[in-house]
Amino acid sequence: MSDRMGGGLEGLLGLLAGGQGGAQGLGSLVDRLRQAGLGEEVDSWVGTGANKPVAPERLESAFGPDTLAGLAQQFGGGSGGATGAGGMAGVLAAVLPQLINGLTPQGRVPQRDEEFGAGGVGGMLAQMMGGQAGGAPQGGGGLGALLGGLMGGGSGGAAPAAGGLGAMLGALMGGAGGTAPSAPEPQPGGKHFAPDQGGPLPQKPRPLG
User: Fold this and answer.
1) 0.85 exceeded by the pTM?
2) What is the helix (H) or strand (E) element at residue 137, kind and residue range?
3) CA 104 from chain center: how many Å?
4) pLDDT tens digits along 7-46
C-alpha cells in the first residue's frame, strides 16, 4: 500500500511546485518557500539538524489561500471552513518538513532525478510512508502514521476524521476517501522508473561538532 500512499504525496508536491516533478520540482518548491521568508525553516528541513516547525498561517501566505483552497478541493477536502485553505495549510505544516527532509537525504536539494534512486521521487516517498526517512526508521510508521494520526486513527483509538478533512488526508494516503491527482507526466525523452523496492534510503550525514 505504501507505493499508493507515496503517489498521493508526489501529486501534491508536483502541484505545489507548479506542475514540475522530480529534482526540478523539489528545487522550485524549496525556492518558493525561501522567497516567502521561510528560509530558516526550509534550511533546517534540508539540512542535517532537527526540523524547525512552521505555522500553517505562514504556509497559507506563501502559497496563497486560493491555491490551497484549490488543492483542498482536488484532494476531496472541500473549499471552505476547516477543510479549505486553512485545513490544507495545517496538513502541509505537519507533513512538509518531513517530506522535504526525507527527499534530501544528503543534506542538500538533489540536482538530478537520478539522485532519488531507481524509483525516483515516488519510490522515496513510498519508503518514507512505510517508515523510512533519510535512511532511519521513524517511530510509529513514518509519514503514513503521521497522516493516519491526523485522521484520528493513530491517536489512542480515536475515530477517523469525518467529512472533508478525512477525505483530504485519505487522498494523500493513496485514495482512501478521495482521489489524489496524478503526478506530473514525465517530459518527452525523460526516463520513467517503477517504484524502488530496494533497501533503505541513504542516511543523512551527521552534523559536525
Assistant:
1) no
2) strand 136-137
3) 12
4) 578 888 888 998 898 999 999 999 999 999 999 999 999 9
